[in-house]
Amino acid sequence: MNRLTEYMLPPARSTLASETDALFHFINVTSIILLVGITFAILYFAWKYRRRSEDDVTPVITHNNKLEITWSVIPLIMVMIVFGWGFSGYMNLVTPPDDAYEIRVEGASWNWRFFYDNGAVSVNELNVPVDRPIKLIMSSTDVIHSFYVPDFRVKRDVLPNRYSSIWFEATETGQSVIFCTEYCGEQHSNMDGMVNVMSQDEFDTWLESGNAVDESVPPAERGEALVSQNGCNACHSVDGSSGVGPSFAGLWGSERTFQNAEPVTADENYIRESILESNAKILEGYDPVMPSYQGVINDQQIGDIIEYIKTLE
Amino acid sequence: MSDTSGVQDKPKHLKHYFVDSDQQFEASKMGMWVFLVTEILFFGGLFAAYIVYRSWYPELYIQASTELDTFWGTVNTAVLIGSSLTVAMAIRSAQLNQIKGLITNLWITISLAFVFMVIKFFEYTHKFDKGILPGEYYTYEGLAHEKANIFFSIYYMMTGLHGIHVIIGIGLMLFLVYKAKKGVFSSEYYTPVEITGLYWHLVDVIWIFLFPLLYLID
Amino acid sequence: MATTDAPNIKRLQVRRFKPEESPKEHYLNAEKGLWSWLSTVDHKRIGLMYFGSIAFFFLFGGILALVLRTELLTPTQSFIEAETYNQIFTLHGAIMIFFFLVPSVPAALGNFILPLQLGAKDVAFPRLNLASFYIYTIGAIFTLIAIFTGGIDTGWTFYTPYSAETSSNVIMMTLGIFILGFSSILTGVNFIVTIHKMRAPGLTWNKLPLNIWALYATSIIQVLATPVLAITVLLLAMERMLGIGIFDPALGGDPVLYQHFFWFYSHPAVYIMIVPGFGVISEVISTFSRKTIFGYWAIALSSLAIAFIGFLVWGHHMFTAGQSSLASMVFSFLTFLVGIPTGIKIFNWLATMYKGSIDMKTPMLYAMVFLFLFTIGGFTGIMLGALVVDIHLHDTYYVVAHFHYVMMGGMVMAFLAGIHYWWPKMFGKMYNEFWAKIACGIIFIGFNMTFLPQFIMGAQGMPRRYYNYIDQFQPFHQFSTMGSYVLGVGFLIIAAYMIHSLLRGKEAGSNPWGSRALEWQTSSPAPHHNFEHTPVIINGPYDYHKPMSEFQLGIAHSHNGHHEGEKVDVETGTAQEKA
Predict the structure, then answer these.
(1) Are residues A174 and A249 in the same domain?
(2) CB contact under 8 A, B7 and C564
(3) For the whole model, what pTM was predicted?
(4) CATH code at position A294
């Protein structure tokens, strides 16, 4: 029985999950009991009262007050219980503790950016400490998205020009997937991310070093890691194949012709502008859908990315 | 009330699926009333948008309303109320079998409706000249509020949709004049006049709400 | 004329009018030629034209669904691009909802059966009725143009800002829907006036068939809700064309306002889609249990209650959208309330079967399938109404499964019940009962195979409108896809035996099911003017304890002046021309 209930829902990885799960199971169980009863009635009546002859006489039963009141009032009471339960759980969901740790979230078609209080930034990977209430303050750079972590049972639409928020407290370390759950265009189903729940110490370590430059690694290698971390390869391939955006292969030094600007040779300035003001120059044959990385990728990182792109034939 | 013996002559206007003229007339009136309810819901959506934006930008509304010419708006209101009177008189003429009076009153109503549209035309062109255009074409500098285009978008949508309904009304009434001249209407049968009159009254009523909400709030 | 008003009691001479069997002339051959069909004002022919159109759109929407499900066999791309996939799911939804479900029972079945059940000779405004059909067709053409000139990929809900900014063909599509809305509104107007003004003598409100009550409630919703959709899509079109900024946050507008506008129509719309189905189920269960309906007033008034409360719950589509907690609470509360009248109906239908004389013909089989599947749909709706649970389930496959259970498991099953019930009246032919039952079984199995796994997937977190998905969901998707093919086969079988019925079906009698309802007291196929006499009603529509002859009464010496030279044998109710 436990296995069945565990099967229906994702692992419960937040303090809020148990409320959702308890009500979910209650409604399931009561519904199944009622459904079995109704199904039994359908089948039993169909068999027991099957027509014996064309001259069958049926009783004239037009109503039965007691019965009708019973089956109106009891379901009414039951749904009121479900309502109250659902409402109280919901109030918990929308009332973050005062000491929640705040992280800013930006949804952009089609990745998630997370801004931490010390200026650190991560793309598509939300790093949080375990056993600590986290409050996410979210907004969108373009259309409506929705931030959903099934394991935590939290979801909230992410709106342009407005802030919305959710909170959760993760109960175990590990990874939980993030989905975008408001249709936002072609790559909506690829706009997923990951919550990395780690111990407070690990989190503090990451936070400190988050944007530190690892001098031991050559810039081009750092650039390669950045391209992956920031979700660039969701749209830009490195092997020449065309995706939502043009491939990085052979980009460096090539002649680029645009729909809305004079042609340029792809140099440092062009790559920098493409990252920060992504729709300033739209390449022929592509749509202006790239979100800007202003505030997400700093100058040092831009330099590393440029070095990496130089290595791609 | 007719017996269904089939012996007596049926009036030309009576459709075979109706028992008698009364039933047909009552059905037509009810149909028009139900349709008018849908029109109220249709405009209701725009009124809802008006209310929402006014609650968010109250000063904008008061400021922007000063751009609307209250004098001509009042004239238009009088014109429309007058036309409601004349369309009711047209119905009265039909009830009294005075077809000449019916046609005259219809023409007066049509003229008043036309006057309304002409005044609206001048109002609109005057605004276009100043750069007060709907939506992203708005270029007027005269209002301090940065969201001024919202008020005018709502203004154009509401008065524009209303204006389309006035034009449709004019078309319907021209058609009534044509039919009246052909002798289709009499005190026995004037249903199209009655239901067009109902429609026209709604067009008037909607304006009576639009006018103060857009023109008189400054 | 007909209704008796105190103190002036009118006396009517009535006699029995037995329906003619094997009529030589009926509505299908009264006028011949394509033009007679295209210019018809006969509600029965108009109903059939609607039926043909919605069948076409159901096929089209169904094929789109099969394409979607096939793509979803693998977690990543199988054979279509993401952009194409997004267009296809948008179209599947828009076509199924606007061109199939909304018109299906009201326009197709309702047009055909409403005047017959009222004892009227047509609807109040037959020419308006034909206009409604052509408006539907024009709306459909605009939509098809939208599809073939760039397509549309916003989802059938057209949420802003995406729909205001996307390069796809939103304006053409919204124009098509705007036009289509008028078809729905005018049909609603027609039905309301017909029900109020054109009932046969003796047909008081407390004797109205429940199908009529259902169509009445539906028409009220259509009339009140559809104009709001019209203004919503108009505003969206203006947003795109003129940038008026009402829904665009960059221009001071509010995208959530769009959602309020949209759902204010679209939630009542789902009741437009299901309430007529409830009416059909009442007719079928009573007829095939040969028993009076249990709780007549409860069922009649519950349709009106659903219509009323249904206007107050739109926010339950927006629990995660950013509306206030107070609003969410109110919407959740009202959502639970609106479920109660529906539950009452289910119990009343079961109670009708109790101690009935049940004949398991195909319509009854579909009615029982309806009871089962719609109950599941209803309970999962309760699940979604619970605020804290909805936060987890919103925009996942759980919602997709829920609405397919109520729309397809509910409405389509009721529609199929209605088609199989009134088929003899429409065409004067019977269909192959054996294959009909087989198809019903296949559809039942295929349906559950397709949609039951989607509840589990959704609860596990699988989002909807997803082209790609993570590996853990693949077994569910594959099972669901196989189910969809089974479902398709079931529908193909229906098409096959129905076409066979038209060409070579056994001739049907005027009342093959032994129903007491008025439409069965005239010949099959129905006569051109529905009844050769003016029917007179003295009993309720489900009074199976009264003899059939009492349901075949009409005003003596009527016939609209057609048959004045007739001699009548009052005993047998037969008439011969005078020598």
Answers:
(1) no
(2) yes
(3) 0.91
(4) 1.10.760.10
